[in-house]
Write a structure and sequence with these properties.
- It is a single chain.
- It is built from 7 helices and 3 strands, in the order αααββααβαα.
- It is flat and about 55 Å long.
- A hairpin with a 4-residue loop joins strand 1 and strand 2.
- Helix 2 packs across helix 5 and helix 6 crosses helix 7.
- It is mostly helical.
- Strands 1-2-3 form a 3-stranded mixed sheet.
Length: 168
């Protein structure tokens, strides 16, 4: 007679609040801890204002590896070349963060939006007539009228961001 496998019983936990569940998730994911927060606060002092505008710490693993999101591959490469120096400065400024090493990735969607020189968020630039024509050309092959209008607007707005505000 084949041996029957003993079934493992699951022990159900008591219900937990959403805040407790989120804290548990953050602990398991390696982010959201006070140590990672401390590293994020010290980051601009460690790398300088210019590099801090193009990078932001996003996660610290249990092993102490701090992952930093960069706005482009060029910034990731630049900061990677200074990895040892930056890790030492971060450990010096913020020993409670427990950072052992740094890892740089390209993740521009994580970075905060650039702000105007006065500190206020910069307002979107309205597309010029030439940029609107460029948007219309980009959407020529789209058959659905609603989708075509969205593509035109998106392409015109992208051209406006690319070219910057109109010069006077």
């Amino acid at each position: 007679m084949p041996e029957e496998r003993a079934r493992r019983r699951r022990h159900r936990r008591e219900p937990v609040s959403a805040a407790q569940a989120l804290a548990r998730f953050r602990r398991r994911a390696g982010g959201g801890s006070s140590e990672a927060g401390a590293a994020a606060l010290a980051w601009p002092d460690v790398v300088g204002a210019g590099a801090a505008g193009h990078s932001v710490p996003v996660r610290r693993t249990r092993a102490g590896v701090l992952t930093v999101a960069c706005s482009s591959a060029a910034w990731a490469h630049e900061l990677t070349s200074r990895r040892d120096e930056l890790a030492a400065r971060l450990r010096e400024r913020c020993p409670e963060a427990g950072v052992v090493a740094l890892r740089f990735t390209v993740a521009d969607h994580v970075l905060p939006a650039p702000s105007a020189p006065g500190g206020a968020p910069s307002a979107p630039v309205a597309p010029s007539p030439a940029q609107r024509v460029e948007g219309s050309r980009a959407a020529q092959g789209v058959d659905d009228p609603r989708l075509r209008a969205l593509v035109e607007r998106a392409a015109a707005a992208s051209a406006a961001r690319r070219d910057g505000p109109p010069r006077r």
